[in-house]
Automatic annotation (TrEMBL):
<protein>
    <submittedName>
        <fullName>RD3 protein</fullName>
    </submittedName>
</protein>
<dbReference type="InterPro" id="IPR028092">
    <property type="entry name" value="RD3"/>
</dbReference>
<dbReference type="Pfam" id="PF14473">
    <property type="entry name" value="RD3"/>
</dbReference>
<dbReference type="GO" id="GO:0060041">
    <property type="term" value="P:retina development in camera-type eye"/>
</dbReference>
<feature type="coiled-coil region">
    <location>
        <begin position="30"/>
        <end position="57"/>
    </location>
</feature>
<keyword id="KW-0175">Coiled coil</keyword>
Length: 195
């Protein structure tokens, strides 16, 4: 852990809470991108060392010193990616990271390809968020429209039925009049014991 990241994670709680959820999402996603790029570089070096070892039969990998992090994205691309990250809702941050890791594990990209994969995962998430928002909006419209039309329908159907002019006798009418409802007689078959 670097000194800068140690200070960031050990900031006083009031300083951390001052950052907005969007800033936290952007920072988290960009840290994930950076980490995946480092991992891709490390794997790329390991593949190159393995290739050299197989080709020459001797391992000279311990002689070679690599920079800790040689590949980095351009400032313009970084700004574009940060802008895309800002459109991700905090509740999608975890699923986006999981999807990104899944894609990286599936493709095993080189360091310079990682940002392209990251961009595609962000676009996929943004489209999914947009679809869900549109579905919620349609559901709200449908519910509002449905409630209005349902109340009109029930009002119209009540006026058509006209329960006060009905010839059908109900128990409630008998109770209101204070009369006893007619008893129902159930017919039962007679069973005779024949012994």
């Amino acid at each position: 852990m670097s000194l800068a990241s140690w200070f960031r994670w050990n900031e006083p709680p009031n300083r951390i809470s001052q950052r907005s959820p969007t800033e936290m999402v952007v920072e988290t996603l960009m840290m994930e991108l950076s980490w995946q790029m480092k991992q891709a570089e490390k794997q790329q070096r390991e593949r190159e060392n393995e290739y050299r070892r197989m080709k020459s039969g001797v391992d000279y990998g311990w002689l070679v010193s690599y920079p800790k992090h040689s590949y980095d994205i351009s400032p313009g691309e970084r700004l574009q990616l940060e802008d895309m990250c800002a459109k991700i809702h905090p509740s999608y941050c975890g699923p986006v990271i999981l999807r990104f890791r899944q894609v990286v594990a599936e493709y095993e990209p080189e360091a310079q390809e990682v940002s392209r994969l990251f961009r595609s995962v962000l676009q996929e998430a943004a489209e999914k968020i947009k679809e869900e928002e549109e579905a919620k909006k349609l559901a709200r419209q449908w519910n509002t429209k449905n409630r209005t039309s349902l109340s009109l329908t029930t009002f119209k159907s009540r006026s058509r039925i006209s329960p006060f002019i009905s010839d059908i006798k109900t128990i409630s009418e008998d109770v209101e009049r204070g009369t006893q409802p007619n008893r129902r007689v159930w017919s039962m078959p007679e069973f005779r014991n024949t012994k």
